[in-house]
Specification:
CATH topology of the largest domain: 434 Repressor (Amino-terminal Domain)
Structural class: mainly alpha
Number of strands: 0
Radius of gyration: 21 Å
Helix content: over 70%
CATH class of the largest domain: Mainly Alpha
Number of domains: 2
Largest sheet: none
């Protein structure tokens, strides 16, 4: 498990100090865990999973994806269940339009970024 903790931390782009602080450990304690000198407690596992959205099954066994689906997926699903069908359709259309706007903005940024500079 220690290797997967290190892998998750690096995937998140965090150094030991920042990762440890967010789960209430010292950098030294995290370092000792990653080296295999300290055991990982259930509390550590739960904090890592909750704080960084890490899949607990992956952390414990290596099976499944490293991260859970976006935390917003469940929340959006819960919201949709409480809307009328008409409001659900409106929200869906608005989300699609937002995606189109985002794609246009991103493609515009990419085009400007790759265009040659004018002197």
């Amino acid at each position: 498990m220690r290797h997967r903790i290190r892998e998750a931390r690096k995937s998140l782009g965090l150094n030991q100090e920042d990762f440890a602080r967010q789960i209430g450990l010292t950098q030294t304690s995290l370092s000792m865990i990653e080296m295999g000198n300290n055991k990982v407690t259930d509390k550590n596992v739960k904090l890592i999973c909750v704080t960084f959205n890490v899949n607990e099954q992956w952390l414990r066994t290596g099976r499944g994806p490293m991260f859970n689906a976006s935390p917003y997926v469940k929340e959006i699903s819960d919201i949709m269940e409480n809307l009328t069908p008409e409001t659900q359709q409106y929200l869906f259309l608005m989300a699609k339009e937002l995606l189109n706007v985002q794609e246009k903005l991103l493609s515009g940024l990419n085009e400007r970024g790759s265009a040659p500079k004018k002197d």
